[in-house]
Amino acid sequence: MPILGLAGEIGSLLAELKKRVREPNRAADTGNNLIAEELGDITWYAVTIARRAKLDFPRNVLLANLIRTQSTPALYVPDFGMAGLRHRKTHIRPLMGAVATFGSYQRKSAISARLGHHDEAALIPYLARIWKNSGEILDIVDPTTPTFSKSEQRKIAQALGDVMWYVAGFASLYDLNLDVVAQINAQKAQSMFMPVRERRPTPLHDDDDKALEQFPRRFNVDFVPADNETAVMLINGMRLGDPLKDNAYQLDAVNGGKIDGYRFHDCVHLAFVAVLGWSPVIRGLMKRKRKSNKLKDDAEDGARAQIVEEMIVKLTHSYAVNVDRDKLLKGRSRIGMDLLKQIQTQTAGLEVSANKLWEWEKAILLGYELFDRLRQERRGRLTLDLRSRLVTFSKVSVAVAEQFPGAA
Questions:
Q1: In terms of Cα–Cα distance, which of 70, 79, 71, 81 is closest to 110?
Q2: Is 349 helix (H, G, I), strand (E, B) or coil?
Q3: Per residue of the chain (408 residues), what is the pLDDT tens digit?
Q4: Is 128 exposed, middle or buried (0-12, 13-18, 19+ CB in 10 A)?
């Protein structure tokens, strides 16, 4: 529900700004990216709530707010509401340009704001008031009713206007342009929540590289046990990488008969190959590093990129275990945005940063579906198809490992 989402994002903003007050050096350590992200999320939820309440956001929310605040410049002002817009048409025309963009609203709303440039002394009462606004919205709306009465529309329009007035003030306080904040947030939302019918995969990152430096567009990888505790990967009977153990304390008897299974975690790397067209780790194991392009070989296929990928797999594994140690992410259709944002931060500057968040979500969910299947079967064949961006699982017989003595 977007109203709960708005309250949650305002709470996150308060948490970050509270730390700024408590820790004077935090701004230097973290910059203003976190604040920009929270302001963008608040704006997105505010627009979504207005749309569901059938409000014209620029006119009923932003413009109405300017009329109220500029008529009585104070933290809280009398409600002119939408009726006030009808009876004050002379005010509307010259002010419409003031809400043409979020940035123009930000500049215009600063006229009535008392939160001056870098005026952190006024921050605490402003934080209290924006939180009060979110509570008012929660109090106005009956969550069991999908429609909004005229009275609820007016109250929501005013409360959202007040929220946006504080959002604009916080943006100015921290030298942020609300247009840029909103644009980045819109790109994030599109990257994550794009309708399935409109999704187009990011082009494979090695499409323009030499054939022998590309990932094969379709190939099989067999996971077979070398013994009760060790698994190996095979491509055409040749071992890929080193034999792996779980390297964990969990034993079958302790875990209800299901092994920890980290020995199979390379299936997540393989899901990255199929869905994202990216895996410095698997590229290195397959001897497909792009040696003919020194820059790519170093920056995209080198040790640093491999470490980033291994870190992402460990992050996703910890996330999956916390969701459900027994099933991992089996049956799940969504990944937490916080995890995806962490991944986005870690991959900044790499070619995979071009991939959209929904692609990461698909890759992670697919990778852990395969992971859980391999934990159950303890062996299996993964067929990767990079053209269709899929990996499929099929069973392999116990005899497969015996056919390839080099596996052990």
A1: 70
A2: coil
A3: 688 888 888 988 888 888 887 887 776 667 788 899 999 999 999 999 999 899 999 999 999 998 888 764 443 333 434 444 444 444 555 566 778 899 999 988 887 766 655 556 667 778 888 888 888 888 887 666 777 888 889 999 999 999 999 999 899 888 899 999 999 999 888 888 888 888 999 999 999 999 999 999 999 999 998 888 888 899 877 888 888 887 655 544 444 555 677 889 999 999 999 999 999 999 999 999 999 999 999 999 999 999 999 999 999 999 998 998 888 888 899 999 889 989 998 999 999 999 999 999 999 999 999 999 998 888 999 999 999 999 999 998 665 555 554 444
A4: exposed
Task: Report phi then psi at 382, rounded to 5.
Answer: -105, 125
How far apart CA 152 and CA 10 sit, in angstroms, is 21
- State the Cα–Cα distance between residues 21 and 36, nearest whole angstrom: 17
The dihedrals phi and psi of 182, each to the nearest 5 degrees, come to: -65, -40
Residue among 215, 235, 385, 200 nearest 300 (CA):
215
State the distance between the two ends of the chain, measured CA to CA, in whole angstroms: 53
> And the tokens for 68?
């109220």
Q: Which amino acid is at 267?
A: C
Of 336, 334, 269, residue with least CA distance to 308: 269
Alpha carbon distance 196, 178 (integer Å)? 29
Domain ranges of the chain: 2-193, 211-407
CB neighbour list of residue 46: distance below 8 Å, 6 or more residues apart: 6, 57, 61, 160, 163, 164, 167
**SS (HEC) of 141-183:** CCCCCCCCCHHHHHHHHHHHHHHHHHHHHHHHHCCCCHHHHHH
Between CA 187 and CA 200 the distance in angstroms is 15
Task: Judge whether 124 and 200 are in contact, CB under 8 Å.
Answer: no
Residue found under tokens 């929310």: 61
Measured CA angle at 87 (ends 83, 92), to 5 deg: 95
Check if the beta carbon of residue 134 is closer than 8 Å to that of residue 163.
yes
